[in-house]
Amino acid sequence: MSRRALAAAPAVGLLLVLGACAGPEGDPAPEVPGTSASPGTTGSPAIPTPADPVAAPEVSVETVVDGLDVPWGLAPLPGGTLLISLRDEARLVVVDPDAGTTTDVTGPGADALAAQTTPDGEGGLLGVARDPGSGDVFAYRTGADDNAVLRGTLDGAVLGELTTVLDGIPRAGHHDGGGLAFGPDGFLYVGTGDAGDGAASQDPASLGGKILRVTTDGDPAPGNPDAGSPVWTFGHRNVQGLGWDASGRMFASEFGQNTWDELNVIEPGGDYGWPEVEGPGLEGQPQAGDGTVAPVAWWPTSDASPSGLAVTDDAVYLAGLRGERLWRVPFGGTSSGAVEDDEGDGSGPTSSKDAVDADGSVRPLGEPQALLAGELGRLRNVAPVEPGGGDAGGLWVLTNNTDGRGSPRDGDDRLVRVTFG
Predict the structure, then answer these.
(1) Of the N and C termini of the chain, which has fewer Cβ atoms inside 10 Å?
(2) Do 95 and 102 meet the contact criterion of CB atoms below 8 Å apart?
(3) What is the CATH number of the domain that holds 255?
(4) CB-based contacts of 199: which residues, under 8 Å, 6+ apart?
(5) What per-residue confidence (pLDDT) applies to 282?
(6) 267, 247, 243: which is closest to 355 by C-alpha?
(7) Residue 79 within any structural domain of the chain
(8) N-term to C-term CA, the chain
């Protein structure tokens, strides 16, 4: 195992971006005039600096297991073990971080996953999640005809027979979504991609380009904007990371197209603009916030390509693929300008995009901080070591250098534990 202290790299900017995508995740983006992150560039919003930014922490990294082939999904299990999906091999493994061991998941469910999954580009065996109520595990897989969510009972490392929870999600060689997470309300949230068809994101009859909210049986969850539909939000390009803060506010990471990647605060029934709006909007094009939900943080696509997302009591974390870094967006800093005084009377930020403590006090989002820049290569997923806790417990992070777009290093890919100084 290697352990080293790493200094945090400079931050980029804060706001939300709604992305488009002309190519697959992490591909080099063509030059787009007037989209520099520099303040004052034509067609680009200025990215203000907070008056009192939160200091970026120093971090240490320890390899837990290595030799993972294209790891994707990451879900904590009881007893401190972790369930990890391997995208191209279409199988699951259980990792014991204390022992540093990896155990293959077997059983009829594992056989069914292998038989049903058709790896293709960005598709394969993707997100995994555990229902805190029943203990069942859920997996998102790309099949020959669609993407689907399946459920089974995991006993140790044996997966029982699978039940299809949700199918008919558009699939393609790119933009397959794949994020799964259980919300504080006990319902399952599913991030999907537009499968290369931007129009599907705005089509209420399509499950593509959406965040879906369903029961564990796959029915539309009570309280959905449309009682007969699983759609929670629409207008997305490719959602993969999902998480909630202590107040119940929902965050999602999303791949951008040529210009911006994004962090979104999710509002039920919200239109996130794709394919009409990219990021906050460019000069001469539709603007975010004009009938669509505006972003809370964005980055140039070369700096992020965010996949997995984790929320602690201290910050939101996004795993960057092309950007090869872990982005930290802290709570508790002075607003960078993304949050405005809604009343315009100087009474302070009242936007729903603030993080709020349990006592109702506002915790605005601070300036994004780049951690692990270039240290581990491409990063696919991230999860708190202690779910529901702060940064003190650290983070689990999956690298993704064996996915066909990275440059594998000795031991790749790996699960590491990141701890904070």
Answers:
(1) C
(2) yes
(3) 2.120.10.30
(4) 275
(5) 80
(6) 247
(7) yes
(8) 19
